[in-house]
Amino acid sequence: MHVQNGANVPRLSQRRVTETYCLAGSALWLLRSLQTAFTCRILAEFFLFFFVLGPLQSETMAYGGRWCRCGLSLSLILSILGLGHSVELAFTAEPSDEVAVPGQPVTLLCSADGVQPITITWRKNGAPLWNEASVFPLPNGSLYIPFFQVNKEDGSSDQGDYDCVAQNRFGTVVSRKARVQAAAISDFHIFPRDATLEEGGVARFQCQIHGLPEPDIVWERSGEIIDTENPRYTLLPTGVLQITALQAEDAGTFRCVASNAAGVKYSPEAVLTVTGPHYTGYKDPMILVGPENLTKTVHQTAILECMATGNPRPIVSWSRLDGRPIGVEGIQVLGTGNLMISDLTVHHSGVYVCAANKPGTRVRRTAQGRLVVQAPAEFVQHPQSIARPVGTTAIFTCLAQGEPPPQITWLKNGQELKPRGHIKLKNNNSSLTISGISQEDEAIYQCIAQNSAGSRQASARLSVMWAEGLPGAPQDITATTVSSTSIQISWKEPLENTEEIIGYVVHIRKIEDPVQLEYQEAVSKDTFQQTVTDLEPSTGYVFYIKAYTSRGASKASASVVQSTLGEVPAVPSLYIKVLNSTAIQAAWEPSIKLGQNEGFKLYYRKVPLPHYTGPMLLPSNVTAYNICRLDPLVVYEVKLLAFNQHGDGNSTVRFVSLKEASARAGDEQRAKSSTTGIIIGIHIGVTCIIFCVLFLMFGYRGRLMKCKASQDQISAPQVAGGVNGRISHRSVQNGATLMDTGVLELKGKVSDLNEMEHLFPHTPRHRTEAIPSHSLDVTLVSAIIPDEISFAEEDPPGTQAINHPPSAKD
């Protein structure tokens, strides 16, 4: 129900109001995003604003609608002014390469969208086409050539590189270049040759011809076009005719016919003669023609030829050298082994291997060819339009990919942009940095990505924000050199809007430094000069001034360049080294602050004489000097200073006494000699100890070997002992032979009778009577011939005499 005169009325729900405004805002955003006419978008926005959102005004006021309506009003105003336009200026159509027929019309497309009015002009080979009678610009921006000519009366031609230029109040953009060429066809540079081949074999004819556009080639046999439905005939688009399993009916005359927009060409005829088979036995597989290296562009078609022969007929197969699968999509085999790849992509690039295999065996022959697929430049990241205040930094980024990798160049309002001053290009030109921007930097910047397969362009606008009522640029800036480290800067206040100035800022930078290394010094609003200190001597600097208010900075003043004064070099470091009793060496380290044409002055004198010897002028690259023929009994003073075009620097003084130095050198020599003697004595002692140890080791080993030989020789002969047949041995101790009824064992060995015979060949073998036992007091003489043995004075270690108890018989 309705209650009039101030009564409550039902309100729309907050949700409905919000949804309505969201839909309207989305519609406005969509309209700006669409590439439709600018006028149509403005009319649509007026409709949305007044007819859709107007009736909701009363409701939205209670739910923040005031802000929504204000925001939409601002959006509409910005759209009308062009500030909120999604694309300030951009091409919607660009010209492309054309092959024109002389005498026929040619149309090159070009159209742009953005803030009106937009003006489109054309250039040919970089020069504007103003009043060319043979070309006509169309209302939509395209260029129309009604009668294409290759050779005009004035010697010119309609052939060339064309581009269109679009311009509005925001700036200028340039389209990609389109090359216009005349259709043409040449004579055949490869044509078929006569051939005589065996029945059952293979034949191949080839034609090649140049033309624009690429000529179409067909084949004729005996004046009739060859039937492509015959499976034994394979016609490749490259101008090759293959015939397999030759028959007598294939004989005849062959020629190729090439045609394009420029005309028709006929090749010379070739005669094919087919003879009977002469040999029907086994033939190894052989590749007659293998694949060639090809360079193609994406979406084109590549044909890799492979023609093989043999008996039995070989099987042709294809593979990639890198082992990757060829795939099946877009792959087709023509004839008996030719590989055709349609709709090429960069992934098809690689080395392809054709193999002719003998059926049922591993016998094969191979040939290979490389396929390179190029891709035109494509943008990965477009540059984006930005707005920046005066004096700040703007960065545009443009990333593109392609095969081969594209080169990137930048245009500013249609003119090539070169790095200079505050404009820097980084990362292979993919990043454009503009530092300390001013009103002059406001423009449309284009990124051009180009490679051998094609080019692309994208644009973005830099808007320099400028608040109304800001002061003008400071006036009459001057710079005066005060010293080698300071310069005084003076200026006058701006000509307008000076009431709100709160201070000035002096911008300082070395001439050779990039803008990024600039630094500032702030001063009060009533100060119109500033002395900049802590500068480097003999160095040029760039200065400019800006006035600041609470709302922003003014434009920059004109720049002024001034250099500091030069200064004398700093004090060098000096070192003195005594070479001998009559010579010293002066060495020094130069200061890093030396100016141009610097050098050194070296003086020396006897103390306390007043006069110096010198100066000795030395160039800057000399850092040492020897002073000879000095008196060893006196003290010398050495003085060194550096000089340059501004004068002499302060000197460094050193004193040296050759007498003390000579005495100190003698002491050091004696100490060194003493130390050397000690070291030599230690070496000699160690050497003696080593020799003694070696002597003892090898001497003991010799005696050990000698003792072992002696003991082996003095082993007693075997003797029959008693009734039980035991053997008695003699034990040699202290030069005597002791009889024992047991068995004597030396080093765990027992010598038998044969060994005794070998050792004592002159001793006859006889049976020895049993010897009665005696007491240990009795000394018995050995039965062994003394001349046959030698005795050791002591037993070797580990040798033990084992005494057995006397036998019962004894």
UniProtKB/TrEMBL annotation:
Record keyword Nucleus present: no
Gene3D superfamilies referenced in this protein's UniProt entry, alphabetically: Immunoglobulins
Domain Fibronectin type-III: start-end pairs: 473-567, 568-661
Keywords: Disulfide bond, Glycoprotein, Immunoglobulin domain, Membrane, Repeat, Signal, Transmembrane, Transmembrane helix
Official protein name in the record: Immunoglobulin superfamily DCC subclass member 3
Keyword Glycoprotein carried by entry: yes
Database matches in PANTHER family: IMMUNOGLOBULIN SUPERFAMILY DCC SUBCLASS MEMBER 3, PROTEIN SIDEKICK
GO BP terms in the entry: cell-cell adhesion
GO cellular component: membrane
Membrane-protein topology: Single-pass membrane protein
SMART domains to which the protein is assigned, alphabetical: FN3, IG, IGc2
TM region positions: 678-700
Family to which this protein belongs: Belongs to the immunoglobulin superfamily. DCC family.
Domain Ig-like: 89-181, 186-273, 285-368, 376-463
Signal peptide bounds: none
Pfam annotation, one family: I-set
